[in-house]
Design goal:
rod-shaped, mainly alpha, binds zinc ion, single chain, two-stranded antiparallel sheet
Length: about 100
């Protein structure tokens, strides 16, 4: 059900699909970039933690620490990016456009 225009009360209102697409793209790009940054940071932190444990558990702990750090860091970055994209999509892009007066709402 498409609502009437809040400016001129016209029922000649169209759904805006392009806003959703732009928002989704921004979310995907932000997720990719922040995921990459988070993965790099996570790998460094993981390697550091792994290195400090190395004297107790041997070289395997250093390698697995780096892998776990990279995976969890990348995942966190992706989730943050997707949440940001969804927020941008919801808050900044209007869902409807009035064909009568051109108002976005
Ligand atoms: Zn209107």
């Amino acid at each position: 059900m498409i609502p009437d225009c809040p400016a001129c009360q016209s029922s000649n209102v169209q759904r805006c699909h392009y806003g959703k697409q732009i928002g989704g793209s921004i979310g995907a790009v932000a997720g990719t970039f922040s995921g990459f940054a988070g993965g790099t940071r996570g790998a460094i932190q993981g390697a550091r933690v792994g290195a400090s444990l190395m004297s107790f558990a041997g070289p395997a702990a250093g390698a697995s620490g780096a892998v776990i750090g990279a995976v969890s860091g990348g995942l966190m970055g992706c989730i943050t990016g997707l949440k940001l994209g969804a927020l941008v999509d919801k808050e900044l892009f209007s869902q409807y456009r009035c064909a009568q007066c051109g108002t976005h709402f």
